[in-house]
Amino acid sequence: MATSSEHPLSGVWKPYCLQAMHYGPESVKSHLLSHLPSDTSKAFILTGSSLATKTSLISQIESLLGSDHHAGTFASIKQHAPVAQLDEATDAVLKDPAIDTLISVGGGSPIDSAKVISHRHNEKRSKYLHHITIPTTLSAAECTGGAGYTDNTGHKVGIFSPALVPQVIIYDCAFAKETPQKLWLSTGIRSLDHGVESMYHPNAPDSPTKQLCLSAIAQMFEYLPKSKKEPGNDDFITRLQLAAFNSLYSLGLNLGGVLGLSHSLGYALGSPYGIPHGTTSCLTLAGVVRLKAEKPEDAEQLAKVLPYIGRTRSGDNRKDAVAVGYAIDDLLKDLGLDTTLKEHKVGEDQVHKIAKLGTRTEEGKLYDSVVALVKSKL
After folding, report:
1. How do residues 330-352 score in pLDDT, each as one tens digit?
2. Is residue 177 a contact partner of residue 230, using CB atoms and an 8 Å limit?
3. Alpha helices in 95-180 (DSSP H)
4. Cβ–Cβ < 8 Å for 247, 285
């Protein structure tokens, strides 16, 4: 049952309990140590091999922690958090009872891996681990208590607990600068997906969630193209990091499951076909928006987006919601992110499987509409 409504305007907001969110140049250097739980805390770093071997960022964190606080580093987290590496990292953490803190550095996979390890730690030792995250993409995985990993069959396994929301988020533009541009921009579309789908989420309150999401959408439309032209601009990076935060964190405990249809289709495309979630949003979001425009209550919410992306409302909610979908298509083209399923080696024979996974049904109006949407992206 929906907890928020437009007519009458009513709702409830159930926030997470974030201790701190820092942003700006040298935020890691200035604030990391102050957010360790105690003077004797031991921290374990989780990241991917690229950040560990191709940059000096991880060694910088290790140096900051020093021998007093650095318990170890696991630098083999891969895309979609495969369970084999997750098991290995979990074992390394459980072997050292002194570890009380996880520091995730990277995109969604290291962040989700830290959440899963904390969950497992609680199962084994009845205690969640303190989690400090340093995101390097715009996926906004740091903004929820949900986490996903890929099991041995290639399917996504999800867990959720309010206790898994990171306690501290540190957005440092120096860390984001190491992210490849395509990954940076495509994860920006992922955050755009968060913001857009929050607009018609049945539990999203008008304030603060929808108001912050409208701001996030406006910032993504403005600063993703600017960041593409000037990838080293600290202000553009930080603006986008804050937009990513605003796109999802304020939904809080109102989320209660998958955010929306674009996200459901993203999960159907992600782990099974090895497509990054930023890219899945590039494939699904615009089409889902046009599909949602056919539902009057969703069209009403989507139409609110139009003036935030530099367009004028016509007064026809359906027409304006459709225009939002086409504006997203235009943004993708401007960013060089328009893509097809065939480019990711997904053929027509997979259409019905994807639609089934994305809708959890095999018939009906929604299923048929999603089949048509998926076919349009071949």
Report:
1. 999 999 999 999 999 999 999 99
2. no
3. 108-125, 173-176
4. no
